Amino acid sequence: MAKEPFDVELDLRFSREGASAAPWSEGRRLLAEAELYWLTTLRPDGRPHTTPLVAVWHADRMYFCSGPGERKVGNLSGDSRCILMTGCNRLRSGLDIVLEGDAVRVTDDAELGRVAEVYRAKYSEEWHFKVRDGAFHGMVGETWVYALAPVTVFGFGKDEFSQTRWRFAA
């Protein structure tokens, strides 16, 4: 059974009169179906670092991967707080999603195996990974996997101009 938010709020300050809160089922669907995401992490000096990546929704969490020497991995080793975003890049339609939480490295080979299957099913054989020693191994060598459980998720509805906030238990 899917994890549901404990609080759903329509922020009237940033919503048109008569707007309604977007259902979490729609936010979750967009997180699962999007092809491209933007991850923002914090550099050691506090400056933000944003990069595009692919990711998958599985077991009520977003999973993304990165090479061990990449900037985002270095950032996450010092501060696990991050934001993952996706949306439609249209001004007057769609729902943009901003997910806030803490990214945790996944090293359990059984969990990694399940996540690797979700990647392959979503992105095709191009994103086929072998799992060993707590990491993915594929087209670019060793890749570390992170799980990002939502703490707070914002949905910016552009059809009726609305801002929904979904909050989850830690």
Automatic annotation (TrEMBL):
GO terms for molecular function: coenzyme F420 binding; oxidoreductase activity, acting on the CH-CH group of donors. Coiled coil: none annotated. The keyword Oxidoreductase applies. Keywords: Oxidoreductase. Pfam families: PNPOx_N. Residues 28-132 form the Pyridoxamine 5'-phosphate oxidase N-terminal domain. This is Pyridoxamine 5'-phosphate oxidase family protein. The lineage of its organism: Bacteria, Bacillati, Actinomycetota, Actinomycetes, Streptosporangiales.
